[in-house]
Amino acid sequence: MDVEAVHSEEGRPRAHWEHFTREEQLGVRGVGRSMEQAFELAAQALCALVTDPKRVEVHEELEVTCQSVDHDELLADWLRAVVGAMAGRRLRFQCFAVRLDGLNLFGRGFGERAGSERHGASVAVTGASLTQVSVRQGPGGVWTAEALVDF
């Protein structure tokens, strides 16, 4: 199911992340004023499946670089790198910063190690598969980056 757009006071879609379901699978979506912002918010939506980003403090920084053949694969590589850091380094993230140069992504994640009482119930992240990955620009120049996720 698609969710209705979240609008700002000016009537334009506001930057946000969200979860959705499609064919009984859970998805993550970032909507932004730029492709970079949509990638940042898609990663935040992914992390919010595990821990509420508002409960994460910034004590560590993760640097990620990815290169791919198209924007859909670039988003998949970016989200896989975030999941890898959540699984391998046990990081939980509050926010992200992404810079794109063509099909090259330079990203940073800001957060802390898992285990704090603020993070709530501990969810073990071991990896994730991503399907139906999509990056597209819609009306008014708004970008959407989304994927179905299976932990």
From TrEMBL:
Family in the record: Belongs to the archease family.
SUPFAM superfamilies the record matches: MTH1598-like
GO BP: tRNA processing
Keyword Ribosomal protein applies: no
GO molecular function: metal ion binding
InterPro entries: Archease_dom, Archease_dom_sf
Domain Archease: 26-150
Keyword tRNA processing among record annotations: yes
Protein name: Archease
Keywords from the named record: Calcium, Metal-binding, tRNA processing
